[in-house]
Every structure is written in structure tokens, then in C-alpha cells.
Amino acid sequence: MATRDERIWQVVAAIPRGRVCTYGTVAALAGLGRGARQVGPALGRAPDRTRLPWHRVVAAGGRIALPPGSAGRRTQLARLRAEGVVIRAGRVDLAAHGWEPGQGPVADAWLDELLWGPGALAPEE
DNA sequence: TAATTGACCGATC
DNA sequence: AGATCGGCCAATT
Predict the structure, then answer these.
(1) Quick check: A22 CB within 7 A of strand B?
(2) Three-class SS string for chain A?
(3) Beta-carbon neighbour count of residue A60 at 10 Å?
(4) Cβ(A5)–Cβ(A45) below 8 Å
(5) pLDDT number for residue A2
(6) Does the structure show a pLDDT above 50 at A120?
């Protein structure tokens, strides 16, 4: 069984380039329900933070969660802009760059398998 | 066991 | 748009 952190990392890794996802959505996809608060710390615990696209995770409404002036924030802004994401007044336009699974059966099947592996449709317990 | 702390969320003013 | 407040969940004191 994958740990909670691992599920979070997998979901974040599934966010396409140039798109962003909110903490709440990541939590829900990872099976945490409303555990949005667990996502940030989990990203900080990621072993290979350079490879994980943590910068594609933003707060509700597209707000950048990292505190102004922090190094992490600057990195996030730079990486997002490098991917073509427009950031205005400290937030991204979710209507334009927001990502949610369910944009096609292919994507859904792929995500399901990524999260739960083959046989995800088999009965639980 | 209880209090505190977060890269949070949503409604409200 | 910005500030406040209550709710949320897990880890740490």
C-alpha cells in the first residue's frame, strides 16, 4: 500500500506541463478527502524535489500559496512562467490553466492506473 | 490527552 | 480586492 505522501506525489506528477492544480483537488485525487492541508508539507517531504513539478500546485482560486519574497515562491513563479502560465496579481487564471482529470476517458484511465495500479476496478477489501 | 501548527478552503462582510 | 472567521485534517509538542 502506497503511503499518503506517495499518493500525493503521484497526483502532482500527473499534472500536465503548463497546467496547475489546487491543493484541494490534489488532496481529493489522492484520496485524502478534505485534507488539503496535508498536501503542502507532503511536497516538502518529497525526496527528489527537483523532478517533482510541485510548482504546479496552487491554492484555491489560483492563488500562489508560498509567502511573498520567499525563494520557493520565486522559483514557482519562474517555472510556471517558463511553461507559459500567466500570473497576474499573485494568481493564475484557473479557467485558462487549471487542470482537472476527466478531460477524456483516456486521461481518466491513465490516472486511475497511475494511482491504484492495474486491477483498480477489482472489489476492495 | 490537549494544544499548537501548517505551502488550505469557503462563506461573509 | 482584502480581511476575518470557522472548519478541516494529520503530525508534533
Answers:
(1) yes
(2) CCCHHHHHHHHHHCCCCCCEEEHHHHHHHCCCCCCHHHHHHHHHCCCCCCCCCHHHEECHHHECCCCCCCHHHHHHHHHHHHCCCCEECCEECHHHHECCCCCCHHHHHHHHHHHHCCCCCCCCC
(3) 13
(4) yes
(5) 79
(6) no
Q: How far, in Å, CA of A97 to CA of A62, rounded?
A: 9
CA-based angle A30:A32:A35, to the nearest 5? 125
Query: CA A30 to CA A8: how far, in whole Å?
Result: 5
More confident residue, A47 or A34: A34
> Distance between CA atoms of A120 and A57, rounded to whole angstroms?
26
Average pLDDT of chain A is: 83
Rounded distance between C-alpha atoms, residue A19 and residue A94, angstroms: 9
Evaluate if the CB of A63 falls below 7 Å from strand C.
Answer: no
What nucleotides of chain C have any atom within 7 angstroms of a protein Cβ?
Answer: 1-2, 7-11
- Predicted confidence (pLDDT) per residue in A87-110, tens digit: 998 999 999 999 988 654 445 555
